[in-house]
Amino acid sequence: MTGRTADERRADNRGTVVIVAGTAVSALSVLIFEVISGRSLGADSFSAIGVLWTIGFIVFTVLMLPIEAFITRTLVVSGGDAAAVRRHRILIASVLAAGTTVAVVFTALTLDRFFEGNWTFVAIVAVLNINRSILASGRGFLAGRRRFTTYGVAVALEGGTLVGLAAIAAVVGGSVTAFGWAMAFAPLSVLIVRPFQAVTTPGPGRDEDVSASAFLGWLLVATASAQLILAGGPIIVGLIGGSPAAVSIVFVTFTLFRGPITSAYNLVARVLPDFTSMASQGRTDELHTWSWRLVIGGLGFGAIAFVVSAAVGPRLVGVIYGSAFEPSGLVAGLGGAGVGAGLAVLFVHQIYVAKGNTRTLAALWLVALIVSTLVLLLIPGTPIERVAAAFAAGEVAALLLLGTGVAVARE
């Protein structure tokens, strides 16, 4: 990157390798957790874990990842000075508190539908979201100060902690709440790497180039739309009449298939600081080139993923989770296509964040959400098939809209 010394570039490259390795450990850890809990609980009881994971995933990606991105971008612009983040502590705390509140209220309102009326899940959801707020903030500090190696270690630590706690839960009886508590406490492992430690010599700061409240507000709208498309499947299946087993099938299938997207959230921490520097230095042509590459690559990858997932996806899910969790070939194919497009659009999304143009980002994601909703409502089929089709349609629409929009967004 322009303006960085050879030693700094080498450190960044080492950090990238560690983030990739940490991401691999995290992805494998999630899979192991789901296998341990799924085989311990069975398809019906596991549905509560699937919904709990979905709630946590949606709140984390809709509200907490934007906070991570906001902290990252703020620190990049300010040269790593924590005072720039502290100026927005009320805004940050409000968003994180809102996420926890929404999750708790939703859980309380759906206890009978998803959690067999067990109020313990309300406490689990509260603790889970508080601890993930700490995780998101810590990761933002690590990425914003380009502590990429430590970021990768933190990602791996969370995954390892999740597996360790899941193993303990299985040993002590394997109850559904025990696995829920394992999920709730794993994020605290980020504190081991001291993400908030003081930096005595921050880099040269610059004035903020966007309104914090407007930037974050539109970013929350954009990510909410994106995550409803990506992660709302299990809840939507349940709400439109799917059985508990159908909820479990959608959860394990889409969680397995969207592993590359979930893993790529960690790589965003490596990409966003560089995209932000490009944007602040006026290197928009480079950003536009990246956008077109991602659109072409995402469409190609999505097409290939549809064919491969339809052919081998059902059997793969059955081998890992058991035959009771197998989806149809069509559902698996649509899931693969959506992931192919979604992986590319995740990185196009970061270009808008880097440029501070979250208003346009939100508008385009809302259009993609409308496309996804229309597909869900208008096509025939089972609840699982309709949700899978809506997911694929929404991700492809988002890729096309955001990718072509980069070239005309000049804010």
Please sum up the structure shown.
With 411 residues, the protein is mainly α. Helices cover 82% and strands 0% of the residues. It has one domain (6-406).
Textual characterization of the structure:
The structure is a single chain. With 411 residues, the protein is an all-alpha fold. The protein has one domain. The chain has 15 helices and no strands. The longest helix is centred in the N-terminal third of the chain and has 73 residues. It is globular. The relative contact order is 0.13.
Helix/strand/pairing category:
mainly alpha
Main beta sheet strand tally, sense and closure: none
Order of helices and strands: HHHHHHHHHHHHHHH
Strand content: under 5%
Gap between N and C termini, in Å?
Answer: 23 Å
Shape: globular
Low-confidence stretches: none
Domain unit count = 1
Number of strands: 0
Question: What integer is the average pLDDT?
Answer: 87
Q: Indicate the radius of gyration in whole angstroms.
A: 20 Å
Helix-residue proportion: over 70%
The DSSP helix count reads 15
Per-chain topology:
Blueprint: H1 6-78, H2 82-86, H3 89-109, H4 111-114, H5 120-144, H6 148-171, H7 176-185, H8 212-231, H9 233-239, H10 244-257, H11 259-280, H12 284-321, H13 329-355, H14 358-378, H15 383-406
Helix pairs in contact: 1-3, 1-5, 1-6, 1-7, 1-8, 1-10, 1-11, 3-5, 5-7, 6-7, 8-14, 9-10, 9-15, 11-13, 12-13, 12-15, 13-15, 14-15
